[in-house]
Amino acid sequence: MARFFLSRKKSEGEMPGAHIFIGKQKMDKPRIRIIDYSPTELVEKEIDSFEGIFDFIHKKKNVTWINIDGLHDMDIMYKLQETFNIHPLIIEDILNTDNRPKFDEDPEHITLILKILDYNKKALKLSADQFSMIIGNDYIITLQEQTCDFFDPVVDRIRDNEGRIRQNGQDYLAYALLDTIIDKYIMIAGDIGEQIEELEKEILKSYDRSLAEEMFRHKIEINYLRKCILPAREMMTQLLKSESPLLSKKIRKFLIDLNELIVMTTEVIDTYQAVIVDQFNMYNSNMTHRTNETVKVLTIFASVFIPLTFFAGVYGMNFRFFPEIEWRYGYLFFWILILIVVIIILLFFQKKKWL
Asked: Which of 85, 130, 235, 333 lies at a 20 to 30 A Cα distance from 301?
């Protein structure tokens, strides 16, 4: 399956807002988990059917986090749309796992779609899962392609009642989740950047072709990282401009800090994109220089042996009357002549600074 653009054949000819899952199914069965909390109460529960959500969403003064792992069950998606009055086009965007990060708001909701990224340093490979977050009044719905432990630190803070998270509303929970995702972006950009900088040292010392392969793989991953993060920067800008009552004034300061972090990350990615191009140029320049040095040595050898081949050819001819053939010192004369020619050629090359 292509990484940069998924096939849309499933949705060809369908009306806008149709519920069609585009992507790779990563779970056999969806999983729905609820975390319902206040400063003094906490309930965690995994429910078997969507209807179990109704026991929590009507509570007052509690924040309810509804997490759905697995996007391929259309029955859940229809019920989600009807229960929370979510626009069909939003559901369509959530089901398209190739969607670029985006922001959407209406009087009842703020919707954020972005990527959760992970990087395998040994395989030099980025992997991405689509993450969608719908912010409502006293609740947040998150949807992921598969179950993961990515947000465990946030869950632990809720359980332990640490920091501000239990003392604030759904907007602070949204900030905490976004903060976790963006922190991971920074870590991944740093890991790839560190490998790129280490590669530069190898390029100066070695001409191994595997270096070119590694540079090319870094280039692909950097481009994919940029594809995922650059639209997230636009999303954060739109979120900061939002005047929705679902975001309190005090949370906006935290969002400004997040925006600065993602801007910094995109700048780092742009920098390493330029570094990769410079490394390719450096590698090609080194290879060209090495080739030129090889050709230079071969040319010197050829220049020396061309006149020697001429003399050998002349004295190798089978003429009956050859002046030096009968001469007692003819053989010695031949070698002296060759040595003189070689010395003259080498002195000429040295004067021209070709050696």
From this structure: 333
To the nearest 5 percent, what fractions of the chain are helix, strand and coil?
A: 55, 15, 30
Strand order in the sheet with 110-120: 42-47, 31-37, 63-69, 139-144, 125-136, 110-120, 102-105
Contact (Cβ atoms closer than 8 angstroms) between residue 244 and residue 171 = no
The whole-angstrom separation of Cα 10 and Cα 90 is 18
Q: At 206, which CATH number?
A: 3.30.460.20
The answer to the question of residue 4 being in a domain is no
Angle between helices 170-205 and 209-241 (to 10 degrees): 160
The enclosing domain of 312 has a CATH number of 1.20.58.340
Question: What integer is the mean pLDDT of 294-312?
Answer: 83
List, for residues 51-101, the tens digit of each pLDDT value. 888 888 766 678 999 999 998 889 999 999 999 999 999 999 899 888 888
- Do residue 295 and residue 279 come from a single domain? no
Based on the fold, state whether residues 338 and 280 are members of the same structural domain.
Answer: no
- Considering the entire predicted model, what is its pTM? 0.79
Query: How many domains does one find in the chain?
Result: 2
The tens digit of pLDDT for each residue in 140-164 reads 999 999 988 899 999 999 999 888 8
CA distance 230 to 309: 66
